[in-house]
TrEMBL record:
One of its GO terms (biological process) is DNA damage response. NCBIfam families: PRK11383.1. The lineage of its organism: Bacteria, Pseudomonadati, Pseudomonadota, Gammaproteobacteria, Moraxellales. The chain crosses the membrane at residues 12-31, 43-62, 74-94, 106-125. Keywords: Membrane, Transmembrane, Transmembrane helix. It comes from the Bacteria. This is YiaAB two helix domain-containing protein. It comes from Acinetobacter beijerinckii ANC 3835. GO terms for cellular component: plasma membrane. Residues 12-64, 75-127 form the YiaAB two helix domain. InterPro entries: YiaA-like, YiaAB.
Length: 155
């Protein structure tokens, strides 16, 4: 794994959580206020949950491969297929839905925002955990590296 993982800034961590919550909560509020049967609302809610899980799982599989953690090709392929399936299911159902174009656009944008938010949040959690483990395993080396980089910057 790359030893140059920087700690995510507080602003990026906050923006990731805001994107996730704004997308997911916006999607759910849209469903709550929608004039559609309950089973249709349930279908869209399940698509949201499926998409969030697929995106987090795909991000984990990609990151595992980058860190040279073994990931089977079938799991990696299923993650991509699952991500594609949930997006296609949403698009097909919205195409056939009896909704205004603005409502369809709202659902698509809030869905994509929540997918981005879950990927960014998962990345932040993974980066922070990696840095925490590195600090616990070798705190002296990290302090030495920081002091060396500060000296290099001063010169």
């Amino acid at each position: 794994m790359n030893n140059f993982i920087n700690r995510p800034t507080s602003a990026f961590i906050a923006a990731s959580w805001v994107a996730l919550l704004a997308g997911a909560v916006g999607f759910i509020i849209g469903l709550w206020n929608a004039n559609m049967p309950l089973h249709e609302k349930g279908y869209y809610f399940v698509i949201l949950l499926y998409g969030l899980f697929s995106a987090a799982s795909l991000q984990k599989a990609v990151r595992d491969q980058l860190e040279e953690i073994p990931v089977t090709q079938i799991y990696y392929g299923l993650c991509w297929a699952s991500m594609a399936v949930c997006i296609v299911l949403l698009l097909i159902s919205l195409w056939n839905a009896d909704l205004a174009m603005s409502e369809k656009g709202f659902y698509i944008m809030s869905f994509l925002l929540s997918l981005f938010g879950v990927v960014a949040t998962q990345k932040n959690i993974r980066d922070l955990n990696y840095l925490r483990l590195q600090t616990e395993l070798n705190p002296r080396q990290i302090r030495l590296d920081e002091s060396t980089s500060k000296q290099d910057d001063a010169e």
